[in-house]
């Protein structure tokens, strides 16, 4: 599941940036970490539900950060539309 995020040339990392990109209609698929703060992930998941965009949960923030190619953990990330 994270392979799509790892292979993506255009991605958005971070809750704030992802929410902005969702509102702008630039996201094709979103990912949230199960061990992240529910206050943050629920906002992303609700927005994805409202916009009918697939949102997948991943095991950890660390795994999500690694899939994005960054050295820190990430609560949310998304693949941008082409």
TrEMBL record:
<dbReference type="InterPro" id="IPR004038">
    <property type="entry name" value="Ribosomal_eL8/eL30/eS12/Gad45"/>
</dbReference>
<dbReference type="InterPro" id="IPR029064">
    <property type="entry name" value="Ribosomal_eL30-like_sf"/>
</dbReference>
<dbReference type="Pfam" id="PF01248">
    <property type="entry name" value="Ribosomal_L7Ae"/>
</dbReference>
<protein>
    <submittedName>
        <fullName>Ribosomal L7Ae/L30e/S12e/Gadd45 family protein</fullName>
    </submittedName>
</protein>
<feature type="domain" description="Ribosomal protein eL8/eL30/eS12/Gadd45">
    <location>
        <begin position="6"/>
        <end position="79"/>
    </location>
</feature>
């Amino acid at each position: 599941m994270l392979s799509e995020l790892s292979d993506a040339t255009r991605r958005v990392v971070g809750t704030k940036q992802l929410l902005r990109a969702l509102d702008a209609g630039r996201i094709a698929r979103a990912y949230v970490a199960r061990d992240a703060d529910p206050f943050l992930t629920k906002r992303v998941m609700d927005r994805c539900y409202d916009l009918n965009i697939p949102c997948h949960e991943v095991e950890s923030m660390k795994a999500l950060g690694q899939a994005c190619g960054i050295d820190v953990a990430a609560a949310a990330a998304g693949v941008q539309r082409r």
